[in-house]
Each structure stands twice: as C-alpha cells, then as structure tokens.
Design a protein that fits this description.
By secondary structure, the chain is α/β, with parallel strands linked by helices. The chain contains 2 helices and 8 strands, in the order αβββββαβββ.
Length: 144
C-alpha cells in the first residue's frame, strides 16, 4: 500500500479474507466435485448451509429415497446427508483459513445442514425421520 493510503481496519481486512475464503470454497471446492452450495445463511440461531429443492406436487419417501410426484416422478436420495458433508468440508476450509490468518480455528462455529422445499403448494408425505431439518413454505419440520 502507498504511504498516503490508510490501511483498512484489521477486522475489515480479516472479514474480507474470510469472504474470499468462502468464495473460494463455493467456487472451487464444491464445483470441483460437481456439488454446488445453494445457500449459506447466518442467522441469530446459527449458520446454515441450505440445499434448495423446487420440485412441485407431492413428496413421499421410501426409506431415504424421496419421490416427487407431479407431471412425472422425480426420484432422489434425501439431500441432507450430502449437505451435511458439505457443511463439514466448509467448516474445515474456514478453520484452515482461520489458522492461516493466525486466528483460533475453534472459534469457527458449527454449520448446520438443512433442506428447503420451496415449490408453492408442495404437499409433504415425508415420514418423521426424513423430515428432520427439512423445511418448506408450509411444512412442519423437526430439528435434530
């Protein structure tokens, strides 16, 4: 930096580096493995990594296999498990970035996985085990 330019406040500089680390995680770590991170949010209750699903109609499950019934049937595994793995990898990346910045990596908070079913009018027939950490416009959810 030039002598005439003020240095940014250390907290702002650290925040910029953390955002850069998150951007690198989202752009490189996830896409390298063909996994995307749909939404990362920070709310008073904690940090969440959300998997968004917009399939319309009705969703039911057979074990951990979900089926969305509408004009056709779409079948997929409960996305919460993969989202949980992404949470752990993101926390790992943030802890690594904290260490690189000379910060205590134990200060990186827990990141919770969640699935948000956002199709208007979706009817859920998910059982009590598959509804854990699954939210929607009109769904009642259970948290683990």
């Amino acid at each position: 930096m030039g002598a005439g330019r003020p240095r940014p406040h250390p907290a702002i500089d650290a925040e910029d580096r953390a955002v850069q680390g998150l951007r690198e995680f989202l752009l490189h770590r996830c896409f390298r493995r063909t996994n995307e991170c749909d939404l990362f949010i920070a709310v008073p209750g904690g940090l969440y990594l959300l998997e968004l699903k917009g399939h319309p109609g009705r969703v039911v499950n057979h074990g951990d296999t979900w089926q969305f019934h509408d004009d056709r049937i779409r079948t997929l595994k409960n996305p919460l498990r993969l989202t949980d793995l992404k949470c752990k990898e993101l926390k790992d990346q943030l802890q690594r970035a904290a260490r690189d910045m000379g910060e205590d990596p134990r200060r990186v908070p827990f990141i919770r996985p969640a699935v948000f079913l956002h199709a208007p009018g979706l009817v859920s027939g998910l059982d009590e085990f598959q509804r854990i950490n699954v939210f929607g416009r009109n769904l009642k959810s259970h948290t683990a």
